[in-house]
Amino acid sequence: MNLKNFFSSILLAFQFFTIVPVNKQLDLTKQTVTGMFQFLPWLGVIMGAVVALIFEGLTLTDSSPLLIGFIVMMAFIIWTGGLHLDGFTDMGDAYFSYRDLKKRQDILDDPRVGAFGAMSLLFLVLTKLIVLTELVTQQILSVYWLMFVPFLARAALGFYITLTQSSKEKGLGYFFRTHIQLKQYMIVTLLSLCIGTAIIIYMTHNWTASILVVIALIIVPIYKWWTKKNFGGASGDLYGAFIEGTEAILWIALLCLN
To answer: What is the 3-class SS of the chain, one letter each residue?
Structure first.
């Protein structure tokens, strides 16, 4: 990848996956799309670093653990503009409709939010809020984990994308997957995962991060099987739902491991 494609890939990652305004027309080629997804775990680190600064500032005040947990959760939501939450909501609407495969795929594409989607969203948000609050209360939440959890969820997404066929031959998820050089993506994501995990183990002086990696990698084949059974494969909404769901599970795991 040349230097122009490298910077284009980074800008594309911010353009598609954050609220950062990138007012520039960028080419969506196989090189830039692949680079965009390869950068995604490190985008999670950047997002987490900004949230960590907010967290550190709040710890210097008399803010309650509930308020800190709420602001941390909201900061991540604001970072993404609720993009991944939208995918989780659509997934909830489609799955709990208990309709046939084709109808579930149609519901995934429907921008409207139904009762099941709203309930799924509420359950996810409350789960994250309660767990993050408990992590703050028990003084487990730290700068390291605020950067590592979003990094790990997005690294695990790379394995899910690589291993899971698209549910339909249309949509943004299908476009992205057909423009990703899958072998290169897998290799770079694996390398990023090893580097990121080694760094966090060195910084925290314990092996909790390695256990979280194992949990994230176990989620991948389970989610692949579940989405294949219920939706016929992957889609853009299911990519977003994977990130949100995996982050929630990792926060719960972090709480249980300490």
So the answer is: CCHHHHHHHHHHHHHHHCCCCCCCCCCCCHHHHHHHHHHHHHHHHHHHHHHHHHHHHHHCCCCCHHHHHHHHHHHHHHHHCCHHHHHHHHHHHHHCCCCCHHHHHHHHHCCCCCHHHHHHHHHHHHHHHHHHHHHHHCCCCCHHHHHHHHHHHHHHHHHHHHHCCECCCCCHHHHHHHCCCHHHHHHHHHHHHHHHHHHHHHHHCCCHHHHHHHHHHHHHHHHHHHHHHHHCCECHHHHHHHHHHHHHHHHHHHHHCC
Predicted pLDDT at 224: 97
Query: How many Cα atoms are found within 13 Å in the side-chain-facing hemisphere of 27?
Result: 8
- Token pair 């390291």 is found at 144
Q: Would you say 247 and 187 are in contact if contact means Cβ atoms under 8 Å apart?
A: no
Nearest 5°: the CA angle 42, 23, 149 is: 20
How many angstroms from the chain centroid is the CA of residue 105?
A: 21
Q: Which residues of the chain have pLDDT under 70?
A: 1
Closest CA to 250 of 104, 169, 141, 117: 141
Q: At 186, which amino acid appears?
A: M
How far, in Å, CA of 112 to CA of 131, rounded? 29
Task: Name the β-bridge partners of 234.
Answer: 166
The predicted pLDDT at position 42 comes to: 97
At 49 the pLDDT is: 97
